[in-house]
Amino acid sequence: MDVFDELIRLRNSGQKCALATIVQVRGSIPGFQSAKLLVREDGSLVGTIGGGCVEAEVWNAAREVMETGKPRNMSFSLGQDAAYDNGLICGGQLEVFVECISPQPAALIFGGGHISKSLAKVLDLAGFRVSVIDNREAFANKERFPEAAEVHAAEYEEVFPTLAMNESTYVVIVTRGHRDDMRVLRWAVNTPARYIAMIGSKRKTISVVKELEKEGLPRGLFDKVSAPMGLEIGAISPEEIAISVAAEMIAMRRMPDGPWRAASKSIFADEQSRAILKPTVTK
What we know:
Elements: H1 3-12, E1 17-26, E2 36-40, E3 45-47, H2 52-68, E4 72-77, E5 93-101, E6 106-110, H3 114-125, E7 129-134, E8 150-153, H4 156-159, E9 169-173, H5 178-188, E10 195-198, H6 202-214, E11 225-226, H7 238-254, H8 271-277
Parallel strand pairs: 6-7, 6-9, 7-8, 9-10, 10-11
Antiparallel strand pairs: 1-2, 1-5, 2-3, 4-5
Helix pairs in contact: 3-7, 5-6
């Protein structure tokens, strides 16, 4: 199996991996400069940097790099002494660079209206793999969304099972109406999506959440929903709204705990929202 082919497959399918590369060689080693080893999240391997205890140490480092996201430089001296602790007596030296390869973020845009058209363009430029889903074929087609990797023209419930959901998935709900928004939100909050945003005022969002709570969905599921969606930049036009939403998605991707959080418009960002959502006690 080719290392690069597998790396691309993993990245496109939303899976993290670590790539180790021999970047410098001095003297004799069991591998060669530029040799590569790919470590999947489950610990399985593709490729080799020469085997032995060096490869075992690099494997351990790769697991750590995937956990922290921070790359590592590693140096090895292959002593002439057979008792040398790495088990190799080639006599050479090598340096290995281990880096985390994060999956390409997937943006699922539910709804094919004006905001979606602008948002698909901006997110494609920002490196997201864009998919558009709408139950109207006139609004969900490749002519309307040439940047999208996938376009689904079908009822939302039919599409949900076909979507690969993971921590690199971003969901934007901009359907044509209140009921369709609710259908998508009901599904989205039960997925591991990293980001969920819904168009509309906070009051509208709270109304949707109250309806879903009546169905038995726990309130905690909605903590990760951003509504109104996007960073507050005074956006008015569809293009401006698209930029504000894309900015919030980039912030979630690059600085999830950054200062922008202070201005987050989570549904439960203030006590007034909590009061509105407080269940009515009846006897």
